[in-house]
Design a protein that fits this description.
Alpha-Beta Plaits; 19% helix; 4 helices; alpha+beta; ABM_dom; five-stranded antiparallel sheet; single chain
């Protein structure tokens, strides 16, 4: 199992508009190999907030198949801008590995960002261990 984390920083006060995109399931929830999505939100400072969209996949092949699918293209084209977090998640073997390496993007200095997203980074992690409550393990 892998976790693909799309971490992005948004202008303070602008997170509601970004979070709204994730309130209802999109095509990804029905895609083969998809396990779950968690959307996390935190205030970073008076100027910025952080949103992390973490998707769990059976394997890298399932994630890569989704990034190459019509479902992925349609979900990201609807906004008329870059994909969630400002970039297309990189498929397996692209440098987005468990070490936390990722690609960050940001608005050029001196220009006003067109969206509330200030920067983004996509990282793929290999799941090494998962611990569930004792009641879940025996069910």
């Amino acid at each position: 199992m892998i976790i693909v984390e799309n971490r992005f920083e948004v202008r303070a006060g602008a997170s509601d508009a970004v979070l709204e995109r994730f309130r209802s399931p999109k095509g990804v929830h029905a895609f083969p190999g998809f396990i779950r999505m968690d959307v996390l939100h935190a205030a970073l400072s008076e100027e910025a907030e952080e949103i992390r969209v973490c998707t769990a996949w059976e394997n890298e092949e399932a994630f890569k198949a989704w990034t190459e699918s019509d479902s992925f293209r349609q979900a990201h084209a609807r906004r008329g801008g870059p994909p969630e977090g400002g970039q297309t998640p990189a498929p397996a073997g692209s440098g987005h590995q468990a070490q936390g390496n990722g690609h960050a993007s940001a608005a050029p200095q001196g220009s006003a960002p067109a969206s509330p997203i200030l920067s983004s980074k996509v990282t793929t992690y290999n799941v090494v261990a998962t611990h569930l409550p004792a009641s879940s393990a025996s069910a």
